[in-house]
Amino acid sequence: MEWTGARYADKPTVEVTTWIAAPPGRVWELVSDVTGMPELSAELQSVRWLDGAAGPAVGARFAGRNRHEALGEWETTSTVVAYDPQRVFSWAVGDPDEPGAVWRFRLEPRDGGTELSQWMRMGPGRSGLSLAIDAMPEKEQKIVFVRLREFERGMTATLEHIRQRAEA
């Protein structure tokens, strides 16, 4: 990823893609199981479905507990905004109409396996990162850049864990 000098209001994005030697159905089992995601992430500590939901569907909500060395611990509520089995799974963090972030997995059958992409967009709603920007507005572009790089590293590791599990 190159330095873009993006500000939070620009709604910057990051995307990581990998190819997995497993059919989309197997990969889908892993990416659509949000309660299993903490095993694949250094930052995400736990996930639980809310409002009686037992799994993903558009409008279903889940709470995620996170931990970051510099940002501390926090909990978010996310709403599933796209759910197309074996193709797309996406959720908005915070208010789905003004999310602090949107995350998405996209699957595509390719070369006898599955191309898997994980994408995220910051903003436009406030998030934990907004607090750091409020405290140091002159460093906003650096704060955004560093966080995007952290997301990119975390997403790369998550996709590698998914690849290993799907191919096992």
Describe this structure in words.
- The chain is α+β, with helices and mostly antiparallel strands and 168 residues long.
- The protein has one domain: 2-Layer Sandwich (Alpha-D-Glucose-1,6-Bisphosphate, Chain A, domain 4), CATH 3.30.530.20.
- Helix content is 26%, strand content 36%.
- The chain is built from three helices and seven strands.
- The protein has helices spanning 24-31, 128-135, 140-167, and strands at 13-20, 44-49, 61-68, 72-84, 88-93, 101-110, 113-122.
- The chain has a seven-stranded antiparallel beta sheet with strand order 1-7-6-5-4-3-2, with helices on one face.
- Strand 6 (101-110) and strand 7 form a beta hairpin.
- The two termini are 30 Å apart.
- The mean pLDDT is 93.
- This is Cyclase.
- It comes from Streptomyces lomondensis.
Mean pLDDT: 93
> Gap between N and C termini, in Å?
30 Å
The CATH topology name reads Alpha-D-Glucose-1,6-Bisphosphate, Chain A, domain 4
Number of domains as seen in the coordinates: 1
Helical residues, percent: 25-40%
Residue runs with pLDDT of under 50 for 5 or more positions: none
Give me the CATH superfamily.
START domain
CATH class: Alpha Beta
What is Rg? 16 Å
How do the SSEs run, as a string of H and E? Answer: EHEEEEEEHH
Shape: globular
The major beta sheet can be summarized as: 7 strands, antiparallel
Number of helices: 3
CATH architecture label name: 2-Layer Sandwich
InterPro entries: Polyketide_cyclase/dehydratase, START-like_dom_sf
Protein name: Cyclase
Organism: Streptomyces lomondensis
